[in-house]
Amino acid sequence: MSLFWIVIRHLAEFEAMATSKKVITREEWEKKLNDVKIRKSDMNKLVMNFLVTEGYVDAAEKFRIESGTEPDIDLATITDRMAVKKAVQSGNVEDAIEKVNDLNPEILDTNPQLFFHLQQQRLIELIRNGKVEEALEFAQEELAPRGEENQSFLEELERTVALLAFEDVTNCPVGELLDISQRLKTASEVNAAILSSQSHEKDPKLPSLLKMLMWAQNQLDEKAAYPRINNISTAILEDPSV
Amino acid sequence: MPTASAAPAHRPMDLLDRLASPDPDIKLKALREVKNQIIGNRTKKLAFLKLGAIPTVASILAEADSQLADGDVSIVDKNSDYYNNNIIIQSAAALGSFACGFDAGVRAVLDAGALPYLIRLLSNSDEKVVDASARSLRMIYQSKLTPKYEFLQDKNMEFLLSLLNSESENVTGLGASIITHSCETIVEQKSLCDAGVLNKLLSLLDGSLSQRDASLESMAALFRNNPEVISKFLGPENGRALSSIIGLTKDRYPRTRLLACMCLIVIRNSSSCYLKDIGIKTKLVYLLLELLDDPGQVGDEAPFVFSSLITEKEDVQKLAFEANALDKFLNHLQNSQLHPKRFQGILLALADMCSKLESCRSRFLSMEVLNSVTDALSHDSADVRTAACICIRSVTRSIKNLCAGYFMNEVLVVPLVQLLNDPLASVQVAALGAISNILVDFTRGKSTFVQCGGVKQLIQLSKSMDSAVRLNALWALKNMVFLADDRFKQGIFMEFTASLLTSLICDHDACVQEQAFAFVRNLIDGSINSVEYVFAENGIILDAVRKQLESTSKAEIGIQGMYVLGNVASGNEFHKEAVMQQLLSQVNNETQSFIIKFLQSNDSRLRTAAVWAVVNLTFPSSPGAFCRLVKLRSAGVVPQIRNMVNDPCLDVKLRVRTVLSQAMTFGDGLS
């Protein structure tokens, strides 16, 4: 991403002259920032990439109309992908599996880890709903064979089945499996697999760009004092405390 | 607690009944459920397979396909078309899943005759039907069990091109998969190239992720061992192709990087004029070592690609050594949950690293990984066991450590001997390879090996039905008797018996014959006592040696046989006379004596071996030497040797001069 290289170049410039910490005033800094030309269309692509990857299909559609930026993927496929994600998030794992298989049967056939995690999530949902017998049967018939195929699956399965041993699952050592975060984790794993199967990157570019920004600022801190962005959500330049 | 599930999963048996239902709705739902039950689930695939579900699904597909075909002309029933299309999509997906990573499933799908139907469906007008069939076919074409696609037959090439030119990503991917699966011969490579397939594949490199990967893999199939296709493609006007492949080694996706590396290595290994510079070789080494860290399939395959990069290439092995490849592989070996495929690959890569460079072997041994490799000898997977043997064979090439007796210990030898009982011949052969090296142990005697019953095992295996096993068992025995003491040899010979040895000398496999000869050669080398072995049971061994030498056309057998006779001729008068008898028994016949034939051979090693025997027969201090010299002269042997005084091979020349100077000591009456 070109923005990143611009920052790096600036860094290198500073490095060349920095023996003691250089102080850069707001005027100097803003002038430098103004010299950096970033094309509007690149920014738009970045936004579109975020909307598509995260699955905001309505927003993406509106943004397409307003900005004229074409998404690099058929927007209809986002709807399908989001339906899968939503199904997992709301605990309808079986439904999610069927939807993934309709989208592309290869995804779960060639991705044993994801398949295991979905089955594990199914088991978790059964336990959550107090369907003990069904849960045991499911663990035995569907999950145990996977554990035989793979040692780490077996360990995860044992952890999950342990949920059944506790009266008060919220306070047991494996209680976090019942947490909503476990659903989100599984959902994002499915989401990533579907994106990969559509030859699309599984992570949006924007967050990694922001990470690079933070990294670059940290590097720069050692060389210079300058107006810094401390709050990413406002992106306000804050004067150095000199 | 009362449990109530919204839609309980059907048992496989019930689903099978529902598949037979005349109601299209029930049938369709059942198909979809079968599909959803088997995807990702090997156990279920097997369960359905055993119930005979695959032929049922295949016939549903066939029926729906033919109804659809009829429907175009007669029935105008939107509803039935809807069902037929969906039934086709679901059954194609189910068949593809049965064939995915499951050999028994592929076989059943093929046996059910589904392949031609799926291929026909590629021309269907419904995009979803085409996609489902193409996906399913791609699964089927990933299996080695699937019959080869015959590019050169009828309109097959035309059809393949139509696949590659398709708009659908799945269909172009299928085209590339078919090439990867079926392109083997030079003729096939060339005709695909002439049909313009390479340029099409090149354009797919700019396509989607899956198209790029499929294209790289099939390019490798077109390039493999075919310098002509490579130079045609990468020639001066097409430099862009090579640089796009090199560019993909930096791709974001690990699988693409791996396949790009693989493609480059195939080019380098098939055609020596590309990718010669050290920069790209080093880059490939580092790239592949990095890919090893991938937790999935890419990491499992990376060591195999790495092996293909370094095998037989000492310079690249050195680069890899300098890049700390050994440490990297060893780190991975510490992981107790290694996937068998990755385990196998790493062991083979280590074997290649240690195949030539002593520095690698020393480093390997100093890191004490031999234990992990020894553990691998008892791994559940036969591939891992085999790879561990191959790795040990490579490491035990270290003469320094062999001499130090480093390898002759129970920890290593006992599991290796146990592998001689392995149910698979390929494992036995690999174990024999490792044992052969370890048995070249000069110092310690071979006691550890004998104590754990190794000798009996080897002799047993020399009777195996599998000629590769016989060959390698003999090889190990040959190394075992090399420079061994008399008592040890006596023990082995008693166990072996002259008749078994004779039958191996007369084996129908020439390579086994050669090893049998080499074994006898080592057995009787050394003391006069050991020469006696060839005279056991009325000299059947010696007779067999002669018969083979008379009939063989293989230089290697001649060489070993002549050394056997040479070693016998180094014995006492009786031994020497016996050799004379074998050499000259044939002279009265019309045919040429084999020793003359060998002396005139183009192979200098064979000439050397033949002259050696004569040197030993005419050694002046033995009483019958003169008499033998006269006989050899009249049989034409000495005159032939006289013609060889200026032999281009120094070895031969030296022995020839020895014979002639020995003859001189008896005066000049021989010329």
Distance between the termini of chain A: 32 Å
CATH architecture designation of the domain at 8-69 and 79-147 in chain B = Alpha Horseshoe
What is the typical, i.e. mean, pLDDT of chain B?
A: 90
Weakly predicted, low-confidence segments of chain A: none
> Which fold name fills CATH's third level, the topology of the domain at 8-69 and 79-147 in chain B?
Leucine-rich Repeat Variant
Q: What is the N-to-C succession of helices and strands of chain A?
A: HEHHHHHHHHHHHEEE
Separate helix tally of chain B: 42
Major sheet description of chain A: 2 strands, parallel
- Radius of gyration of chain B (CA) equals 33 Å
Quaternary structure annotation? heterodimer
What is the average per-residue confidence, as pLDDT of chain A, rounded to a whole number? 88
Secondary structure category of chain A: mainly alpha
List unreliable stretches of 5+ residues of chain B: 1-6
* Most extensive protein-chain contact, per-chain counts: A-B, 26 and 25 residues
* Residue fraction in strands of chain B: under 5%
Strand tally of chain B is 0
Distance separating the two termini of chain B: 112 Å
Determine the CATH superfamily of the domain at 8-69 and 79-147 in chain B: Leucine-rich Repeat Variant
CATH secondary-structure class of the domain at 8-69 and 79-147 in chain B:
Mainly Alpha
Short description:
The complex is a heterodimer of chains A (about 240) and B (about 675). Helices cover about 65% and strands about 5% of the residues of chain A. With about 240 residues, chain A is mainly alpha-helical.
